[in-house]
Amino acid sequence: MCLHLLRAPLLFLAALCCGMGTASAQAQPWPDKPIRLIVPAPPGGISDASARLLAEHLRTNLGQTVLVDNKPGGSTVIAQRALMSAPADGYTLMVSPSSVLSDIPLTVKTPYDPLKTFTYVGEVTGMVHVLVANTGFAPNTVKDLLAHARQHPRTLSVANLSTGTRSNLLGEMLRERSGNDILVVPYKGSAPALVDLMGNQVQLTFEVVSNVTPLVRSGKIKALAVASAKRSRFLPDVPTFGELGLPDFVMPDASVGVFVLSSMPPALQEKIHAEVARAVQSPKFREALLAQNYDPPRDMSLPQLRQTLDATTAHNRAIIEKLKLKISPE
User: Fold this and answer.
1) Which of 55, 139, 234, 322 has CB 3.0 to 4.6 Å from 144, enough for a Cys bridge?
2) Phi-psi region of 154 (alpha: psi -120 to 50; beta: other; left: phi over 0)
3) 287 CB-side CA count, 13 A
4) What is the C-alpha separation between 175 and 282, in angstroms, rounded?
5) Nearest one of 15, 21, 55, 22 to 39, comparing CA atoms
6) Can you tell me whether residue 182 is helix, strand or coil?
7) Model-level pTM?
8) Quick one: 42 exposed, middle or buried, by C-beta within 10 A (0-12, 13-18, 19+)?
9) What's phi and psi for 24, nearest 5 deg?
């Protein structure tokens, strides 16, 4: 009888302790261990530089180690799979161009749906594309370029930096506008494409403004038009396609941002969004971006970020359907 009376309070205390332990585990603050930023690109370039700058500011603000893990290749699919294999606990994030959702899933077939698997939680830097050409290429305007392509069919080529990217989409739009007289040549990234552009193995490519501004300013390549609604602050003398009478080449601005698994708890998504915003909206961060010819990110709430990305995806889907671009295997 006495043992029975003693057992009940002991069982109650044990249950209470277990409950407190569970609550304590659930209430553990984020972050309390190192964070990994997966980048679907090799070192160098806007994605890698943006990730490293973000990592530096997150380390300072959060007091935790933040590592950059480069996983290039496969039109970002290798990096996507690395993120999918990690827990949705906020310790593995992906820093990638927004094309990972707004462009690539529309042209690269995978056994999973990226639009459902990943979600956008923060913009790190803006990203505007510009059409650049070899300096020995005679035409100096887009109008003259298209006329030249029709007069000399299949003698001009535009570098495609990766399947499904904004560069790829813009290159296909240019090919279609030329009456299919411009060839699209695949490359494994910006560096080899720009080397061949300067060597005149290809005559044209669409590149991120930040990647080519030093080359344009030094006269190693020339810029013909910006594929944005307004001129770039870094190339103010270069007109937009809209100014040249080609409004269909006015593309929604892309960005480099932070992506997480959609299965991550909404409260944690909000917390990561807040910390990314705190880092990127600081004057020091913005000064560092401008020094590298990167556009600062827009200040948007989580719903605004996702609405903007959804609108860009719808815009690009319409272009892909119009051009009847083929879906590439993973």
Assistant:
1) 139
2) left
3) 4
4) 41
5) 55
6) strand
7) 0.85
8) middle
9) -65, -40
